[in-house]
Structure formats: C-alpha cells, structure tokens
Amino acid sequence: MREIVHMQAGQCGNQIGSKFWEVISDEHGIDPTGAYHGDSDLQLERGKYVPRAVLVDLEPGTMDSVRSGAFGQLFRPDNFVFGQSGAGNNWAKGHYTEGAELVDSVLDVVRKEAETCDCLQGFQLTHSLGGGTGSGMGTLLISKVREEYPDRIMMTFSVVPSPKVSDTVVEPYNATLSIHQLVENTDETFCIDNEALYDICFRTLKLTTPTYGDLNHLVSATMSGVTTCFRFPGQLNADLRKLAVNMVPFPRLHFFMPGFAPLTSRGSQQYRALTVPELRQQMFDAKNMMAACDPRHVDAHSKWLEPFIMNDISTTTTTTINTLTSLFARYGFCEEIVSDNRTQFTSEEFAGFCTRNGIRHIRTTSGHPQSNGQAERYVDIVKSALKKGLHNGGKISDVLSKFLFCCKSTSHATTNQIKHRLWSSDEDLIAMNPTTITSDHDKYPSALPSSDQGSKII
C-alpha cells in the first residue's frame, strides 16, 4: 500500500477535513461507524476502517463539534490533539507560543501513524491561512514534519483569505507570514478562497443564502476529485510524487488552482447532459475555479518585447545605462534584470544604478542562460526575423521596426487581444487597413494577423 497521513489544523481545517472524510467514506461504502457495506470480499475481511488522520486545534470547541458530528465516531480518539487557550487569530501565537507548546504532542501522533504505514508516500494538511491556528501552527507543523520526513511529499489544501469575504482584520498578515513557509516546505499546495466559493454558490448553484456547510461541501468535493487518482486504479497521477512531477514546473512554483466540473443548480441537474468538450470547458472556466482569479488574463509586462540596436564596440556601461533609462522612462522600473557577465554589466557603475533604483541584478553565462526560457525564445525569434529581413536587402532599423509592428499587432493566442490592449487596456486605437502592409506579409507571414481580425496601431 501507499499510505498518506492526513492532518487538519484549526477550525477551518477541521471542518473541511471532516467533510472530506464524510465524502470519501460514502464513495467507498463505509458508514459512520467505520463498517464497510458492499460486495468486495477483500474489503469485508478488514473489519472496521479508521481514518489515518490527526486532528489539531488550540481550543477544544472544534474537536467537540467534530466528535458530535455524523462521522465523529469514525476517528481514533487518541488522534485528537488540542489545547485550551486558542490562538486568537494571531499567527505568532500559533507558530511560536501556544502552537510550539503543543506541536511535540502532535508529532508523536503523526509518528505513530507513520510507523504503522507499509510504504508512506507523504502527508496531506487542510488548514486556512487567515486564522491563527491553521496558519501559525499549521505552518509550524509542516516545517517540523518536513524536518523529520524530508523525502516524503507534503501536500496542503490551503484556504486563502479574500478581501470580499473576510471576518478578521489581520488575515492579510497571517497569510503573508504563512506563504513563505508554504513556498519552502510544501511540494503541492491547492489554493482555495471563500470569495470564489461564494461566487460559485450564488451564480452557478443558485443558492440565495449559502452557509459554511455549502462552502465546505464544495471544498470536500474538490479534495475528493484530487485524491481520486490515489484511491482508485488509474494511469495518471497514481501517487503524490507523480502528481508533483506532472504539475510542478519549478520546485517553488507549486501552487495550484483547482477547478471543479460539472457544477449545476440542484433543480436542473436531471435535465443537463454534458459532453466531454463541455465538461473540459467548464473545468477550465474561471467561474468554476476555487480561487477567485482568471488565469486567462495575461500580464502584458511578461509578454512585451522591446529590442534595441547596440554596437558591440561602443557599448559601454554608460550607453547601457542610458538605454535602460530610456526604457524605464516609458514603461517604469522592472524588479529584476538578467544579464550575461560582460564588462558593462559587471562594473560598479551598473551595480550602483541597479541599487539606486531597487532592481535585483542576476548574472548568468551567455552559453548557459538561466532564466525562465522565455527570454531565450524571444532572442531566437528576433534573430530569425532580422536574418530573414536582412537577407532580402533591408536596413536593420527598418527590418526591426516592421518586425515589432507585426509582433505587437498580432492577437494573443489566449486572450485574442493585441499586446497593446493587454498593456494599457486602451480602446482608443486607430484602425489601419491591413492591405497597406501586404508587402511585408511575405517576410513575416506568421506574425501578421489575418485580414478578418484587422490590424490596429496607436
């Protein structure tokens, strides 16, 4: 077996965690007492089922509500670990004082659960980032477990605070302090926020007064969907590590936005028959995302190409700084500059320029550039366009201008908008007849927009 130890911290974490166990118990035919009801001989032999779960809070109230719930008898009594004072929505109390006093008791229970596993693959935590226990003690527990089990996968379902749905004024502080811990000590984090959940309840499920029970049901359904590939046979994402391999491009970039489909109001479920394309479209629709942001909105800064013609012989530190100054004067300062190790970038003058303007400077070798790959792709595109244009007898400045015109007037594949509109959100653009630039179509056929879209310039 490939076991996962489940942990739930704080009021929010315990509520969504308990609902999660209700949902998957129902999927596997397990009743509130832990008995299996079904026709599988293997399952019938095993007798009573108990969740491999550790329930943590700094006050007893949440534990009492879990015990008195429908599936309260399902959990092992020794796995309830709680304090008496609470964290008072204070991250520091959960991380450094009250939580630090209780964390050793929690780790003892975690060790006991891990030792009973045949082949432990990792840990799963449910918590919120806005409260005191879930954020403060939750991140402390993550760091302690990571110290003890560094080669196991750590997955979290983190409820992120939202400005539109907030009940505590210090939620932004608690979340900011928690994010650093999640970046460093988790391998997979599923981001969920109440604003998106409320929007789904209002707009899609047509609930006039959604309760926390409705929100928890959405979260538990999402968690059930995420863990389906672990609980049932399949070819894709069969364990936590394979999920990370498939989903995480860089180790620190492991924050996921789960989408859930199908979502329909209760009255219309029996009348709705979804096809596979409709299901896929719903799943990636921003209205079905559990985090209130639209992934289709592209940041134009990350897609904006601005090449300059420089002379290798006369390119000194001063000319480099002057060129960057003219760029920053038009578009504002950047946060980071990535360059090679040539003298104009390694001089004290350039270092002072970056320091004065709050710019982080990263140097890398030209033979093995270390950026996100996009800069290298843009360099290859520009070089290819210049080579093609110069081969046809053009002047380098004219060729570059025409290439940039083609590049910036082409609609973005995701948003179907030109880059200037992504940049400025400006509708006041002058339409230009595409026939006026047909002579360049032979040089850059892939960069020009089609005639039915039209081409626009400032």
TrEMBL record:
Its main location: cytoplasm. Gene3D superfamilies: Ribonuclease H-like superfamily/Ribonuclease H, Tubulin/FtsZ, GTPase domain. The keyword Magnesium applies. Pfam families: Tubulin, Tubulin_C. Its cofactor is Mg(2+). SUPFAM superfamilies: Ribonuclease H-like, Tubulin C-terminal domain-like, Tubulin nucleotide-binding domain-like. Coiled coil: none annotated. Residues 436-458 are annotated as: Disordered. GO terms for biological process: DNA integration; microtubule-based process. It is found in: Cytoplasm, Cytoskeleton. Keywords: Cytoplasm, Cytoskeleton, GTP-binding, Magnesium, Metal-binding, Microtubule, Nucleotide-binding. GO terms for molecular function: GTP binding; GTPase activity; metal ion binding; nucleic acid binding; structural constituent of cytoskeleton. GO terms for cellular component: microtubule. InterPro entries: Beta-tubulin_BS (IPR013838), Beta_tubulin (IPR002453), Integrase_cat-core (IPR001584), RNaseH-like_sf (IPR012337), RNaseH_sf (IPR036397), Tub_FtsZ_C (IPR008280), Tubulin (IPR000217), Tubulin/FtsZ_2-layer-sand-dom (IPR018316). The keyword Nucleotide-binding applies. Residues 298-427 form the Integrase catalytic domain. Residues 448-458 have a biased composition (Polar residues). PROSITE patterns: INTEGRASE, TUBULIN, TUBULIN_B_AUTOREG. PANTHER family: TUBULIN (PTHR11588). Tubulin is the major constituent of microtubules, a cylinder consisting of laterally associated linear protofilaments composed of alpha- and beta-tubulin heterodimers. Microtubules grow by the addition of GTP-tubulin dimers to the microtubule end, where a stabilizing cap forms. Below the cap, tubulin dimers are in GDP-bound state, owing to GTPase activity of alpha-tubulin. Belongs to the tubulin family. Dimer of alpha and beta chains. A typical microtubule is a hollow water-filled tube with an outer diameter of 25 nm and an inner diameter of 15 nM. Alpha-beta heterodimers associate head-to-tail to form protofilaments running lengthwise along the microtubule wall with the beta-tubulin subunit facing the microtubule plus end conferring a structural polarity. Microtubules usually have 13 protofilaments but different protofilament numbers can be found in some organisms and specialized cells. This is Tubulin beta chain.
